[in-house]
Amino acid sequence: MPETLKETAADAPAGTAAPQPATAAVGKPRSLWSDAWHDLRRSPLFVVSAVLIIFLLVMAVFPGLFTGADPRYADLAHHYLQKPKWGNVFQEDWFGYDIQGRSIYARVVYGARASITVAVVVTVLVTVLGTVVGMLAGYFGGWIDTILSRVTDIFFGVPFILGAMVVLTSFEERKIWVVILALAFLGWTQIARVARGSVLTIKQADYVMAAKALGASTTRILLRHILPNAIAPVIVVSTIALGGYISAEATLSFLGIGLAEPTVSWGVDISSGQEQLRNAAFVLIIPSVMVSITVLAFIMLGDAVRNALDPKLR
Questions:
Q1: Reported confidence tier of residue 313, pLDDT bands at 50, 70, 90
Q2: What is the DSSP letter of 82?
């Protein structure tokens, strides 16, 4: 026993334990994702947006939990443009009836499925495609980067809504999968640019150089070292873009080029309600408010994720 400990033990009063040498508590280091989740849980912006998005997703997947009315059932004789009855919460006549005598509340509930499905599937497709293109361009460089970057620039130069209109007008029947492919065909360029810029920075890191020196394959380097460290900005852009795709679907349907009857969609209802703006504005306003709330929720979620993943904003 060291001399100092011997003296301390000898000087200690009878019946008391001798003090033990202090040891520094070593905690488990947290990763970027654990730090981000720690910040997100304490962000009011994230909590509010997450609650809204979960509510909308549940409504899209299980519309029967919110209403038992048929969104396609029309009764012109009794329900022609009846005004909303705000006191009848969650009832068939809560939001009134449209020009065909259909329950607007039922159509709002069931319309969430088409609008959110289009946005989520398009986001997944453009994220995968944009990430792959950006990673290949940024990692290999040279002529591969030149070709992929010029292709990205060509697609980026096409106006998004105008290009989608041109693609969709070539189809006689515009179902959900047609709208999804049209939006995904033109929407991957921004994510490809973000992924490429992130990979250009990360591929110079020491751990990537060490993996190359140890003989790791290109596939292993891309999937185990590049992708996990380059995906954060891609997730931020994808989350914010998801709300934009909901707005794009509603815009195309409003113009009569996106989804069409008998599909139940917020954009379809906005398009059919524009003719009643003067004498029954609620037919147009209610689905428009739902689109706005949904887009705002995803934008808020993207902002919260960006604040959590960007060390400069902490």
A1: low
A2: P
